[in-house]
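Collaborator request, handled under Task 6.
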Amino acid sequence: VQLQASGGGLVQPGGSLRLSCEASGLTLDSSAITWFRQAPGKEREGVSCISRSAGIDYADSVKGRFTISKESSKNVVYLQMNSLKPEDTAVYYCAASFFVYSCSLRNYEMNYWGQGTLVTVSS
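C-alpha cells returned to the collaborator:
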C-alpha cells in the first residue's frame, strides 16, 4: 500500500491550495482516508476524513474553510483548503484506515501512512 500526498507549497494568508492523496494497493471503496497535519513543535492532529460511503468529518479548526472529497475512479482524495491562515502551516499527511461505516481523525486508528507535503502560509 502506498499513499502519495502532493500539492503543498507557499501561499499567502487568505489564499487557497488543493492537496491530493493518491492511493495504490487499496481502493477508496474499501478504505477511509484521513488528512493529518503536524506543525513544528506540535502534535500531529486530524484535519478531515472521508469514509467508504463518503461520510465526512472535520476538525473544528478547519470547518467552513476546508473541503474533503474523493474521486474513486482515480483512487484520489482531495483536500481543498481555502481562507488559509498562518496557523495552518504544517506538514500534511494522508492516512488510510478500514472503518466500515465512518472515518476517524485519531492517528492511532490509522493502518497506513503516506509521506507528507509541506504547506506554508505566510506573507
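The cover message to the collaborator said: "Residues 51 and 102 are 5 Å apart (CA to CA). The longest strand covers residues 17-24. Please let us know whether this matches your experimental observations."
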